[in-house]
Design goal:
eight-stranded mixed β-sheet; three-stranded mixed β-sheet; Cytosolic phospholipase A2 catalytic domain; alpha/beta; 36% helix; globular
Length: 266
Amino acid sequence: MNYNPKIGLALSGGGVRGISHLGVLKALDEVGIILTKVSGSSAGAIAGSMYCQGYSPEEILRIILDTNYFKFLRPAISWKGILKLESVGDLFKQYLKHDDFSKLKIPLAVAATDIKKGKVVYFDEGELIRPIMASACIPGMFEPIQIGNKYLVDGGVLNNLPVEPLEGICEVLIGVNCNHLPEESNIRNMKNLIERSVIMTMNFNVYSRKSKCDYFIESPGLGKYGVFDIKKAPDLFQAGYEQAMKIIEENPSLRSLGNSALNKNT
């Protein structure tokens, strides 16, 4: 009789680079790894919610490519941010009609940052869409999302690899980061300097949690892609898939998690 441990997956934020998570999910699907719970920040929360709803990685990629995401953004003329994320809720409602964590096929937790208290907030029950929006609310670019008395911004500000909601529930933790920075011999301009510094900060709080993961998947060089560089979506998907398959091949113990699940279903 095969024993199938509970497996948790934590997905980092990283804008469009989060599409690489879909490639990782495709690889896990192909070897039969069945997830017990998923957690995510920002782009990881978006990818995770769609996967936990039951969409395949390829379906999610197609939705992203077919949807003109930016038409759902409205200018926010206030000190809080440049753009409003509120109208993006209409887009999410097309694909997450129930708007309820409990209706997902796989349990999900998303991380957001309470900007007033300076603390991480985790959501895994109740309404679904607004916590996802809060988790992806880049500070300074988007107006904070209000839930109750909390004003929330991007979860990646304080926790860009939210393994904590998986601890005590899952016996095996897989962490995925989509922001690996290649070495840079020439900082070309101020924009390049700022973008690189932001990613370094995000990665610091990812790497501080790396030791909590039994397996860690990080496609090389994805930090070179822009946060909104949607034209690179197919490349990002493939990069995630190839790196995940590489890690699976290098770690027979990880592959065996999938094999045991496949054996259970045959």
